[in-house]
Amino acid sequence: MLAPCRTLIAALTLFVTAAMATAQTSENPPPTKPSKARQTVVTATRLMEDPFDVPYSIDVIGEESLRRRSYRTTPQALRDIPGVMVQETAHGHGSPYIRGFTSFRTLFLVDGIRLNNSVFRPGPNQYWNTVDPSSLDRFEIVKGPSSVLHGSDAIGGTVHAITRSPDTWAATVGFAYGGHSSVRYATAEDSLQGRGEMSLGHTWDDGAKTGILIGGSARSFGDLEGGRSVGNQPDTGYDETDFDIKVQHGLDADTRVVFLHQRVAQNDVPRTHRTVNGIRWQGLASGSDLQRDFDQDRRLTYLQLHRENIGSLVDTVRASVSWHRQQEVRDRIRSNTNRELQGFDVGTLGAWVQLASDTPAGRLTYGAEFYRDYVSSFLRRLQDPQPGDGIQGPVADDATYDLLGVYVQDSIEVMDNLALTLGARFQWAAADAGSVRHPVTSTRTSLHDDWTALVGSARLRYVLVPGEVHLFGGVSQGFRAPNLSDLSRFDSARSNELEIPSPGLDPEHYISYEIGGKVETERLAAQSSIFYTDIRDQILRFPTGGTSAGGETIVTKANVGDGYVAGIEVGASVRILDDTTVFGNATLIDGRITNFESTASTLQETYPTRLMPFSAQLGARWEDSRGRFWAESVVVWAKKADRLSFSDQRDTTRIPAGGTPGYAVWHARCGWNLSEQTSVQVLLENITNADYRVHGSGLNRPGRNLIFGISARL
């Protein structure tokens, strides 16, 4: 499986080698004192703010952290954040659970544009894995409901991926260029990845500046090697190619026009646990399919305007128009060797405008956004076609789905040490599907429905010690309208389940309460929070009592889920010596929700699906005073995940009977800055070669895994 990518990766390696050969040695002087500099964030309040001042639980994963820890995928980059559990159904799939929620109950943005669309299903999905982490400058993670500013789906949290920009603005009038490349190799993953990019820039006589970044990545993964007893996990590898181009033109210091196009293509990603190759670790059952592979093709194109410091009634304007296309094909061979192809094509037209104004009543942020999905889907059985196959694929065919939102937020300095942020949003959603398969008659039906909601939030920030200790808290409402997957899915669900359409659903509603604190001194940085999220009318699956022709349990959906998720998150780092830092975090989450255990049962209280077990990390990091060398060691610990929902108990190919075993895993990492242009990373993960999996995953995490990375700039 490595062969298709070797040529490109070899070229990238040559580029790195050339960069190293021309690089100059860097002698960075030791810092005179610890730095408290932080980059601004935009996701929590849609304003450029210091994350320390934001009245939310927020984490930032910057470019340096992405490079040092050499994360394999975008979901994996979130695994070290308190309150986040990254489930992987397959090696090419990854879905973070944020404060107990995943999939369409968490929102993913790319440069402010929704990755979420109306075909996202309720369980863990693969779509976050279609964002190339090596093309990103940073992630911003805001935990808790953000429906006021970001609309439907922003319940557990909002993750914002900020793409890399050209860094070749010429200091004087004229032309400038640069480049960057990286290679990553990992033993237990049998993987080789590489990225190369080129930046060009020009500064004009009138001060205008133009920059272009062109980048590409290639990734090839062989079969994943598990721990000491599991060993090789067959049929888990896949290939991926990525391309992106970004053009940024600065009309002046305060006005930018940005164009971006990116494409990610994944080939033959196996969902191994549903096949005969699924491992039987801890008594798990394997699936019956001979093959279940997915192809993904995602393309995003946008044009944006960013203008600041206008100095009139409207101080800031940001606007965007985008076209986002996602295509998926599933190639399945059943146990009787019958083959079927199914998939969908979703094109999303998006447009939004955001404005900000300074007024006597505070700093106003307001705007509107609109997204329309155009959805087509298909199912083709190559042998033994059945009535209704041509009506739809996994979701309705010939469908559209609309989201329209209008919002306003006011940030008010009530006193010198107290700030209040109030917000409200009106949301409208509508589904229109012309081709839906009736679950009983297999005839063509249609559905038309729409929903509205008004949600609000109130957040406080109290400055206890200026610049060092802040307290925050608030109440935030969340809202999620039923999407096309909720209403029309006719497809496999969990192990041995077939989901049928469920028209007539109502929206889900949430209210989250949170209090927390942030500390940042010369030697201590910490953030902690306590949260409680009230759940009303959550849409949940449950058995109908019927069985499909293929022997699968038929499940449907209804607004039966009432309950809560609550938790405590703590994270801190302490500089115990000028060159040594101790860091760690811990998460405790609990919850209950109502659902039907079986068709004949009444509503009963159960656990939310895949509830994150108590988890913690503890580590130490050492950095050379000249900035040339760093090393860290960390232990990751998770308790046994034995608080199982009704559906968890039926998921016998992913969750062992009684729950997913706990684990303790030890990692060591180090890196050298060989020059200002070149750095090397060496990581040894899972040093003890433990067998373990993250709760709900379809495969075990890598065993002892040596990762080597090198990156260089021109």
Reconstruct the topology from this structure:
Blueprint: H1 3-22, E1 57-61, H2 63-69, E2 84-87, E3 95-98, E4 107-110, E5 113-114, E6 136-143, H3 147-150, E7 157-163, E8 174-186, E9 191-203, E10 209-221, E11 224-225, E12 232-233, E13 238-252, E14 255-270, E15 291-307, E16 316-333, E17 339-359, E18 362-381, E19 397-415, E20 418-437, E21 444-465, E22 469-480, H4 484-488, E23 491-492, E24 497-499, E25 508-520, E26 524-547, E27 553-577, E28 580-596, E29 603-606, E30 615-623, E31 629-638, H5 646-650, E32 663-673, E33 678-685, E34 705-713
Parallel strand pairs: 4-7, 24-27
Antiparallel strand pairs: 1-6, 2-3, 4-5, 6-7, 8-9, 8-34, 9-10, 10-13, 11-12, 13-14, 14-15, 15-16, 16-17, 17-18, 18-19, 19-20, 20-21, 21-22, 22-25, 23-24, 25-26, 26-27, 27-28, 28-29, 28-30, 30-31, 31-32, 32-33, 33-34
Short summary:
The protein has 714 residues and is mainly β.
List keywords for this structure.
five-stranded mixed β-sheet; disordered N terminus; 6% helix; 714 residues
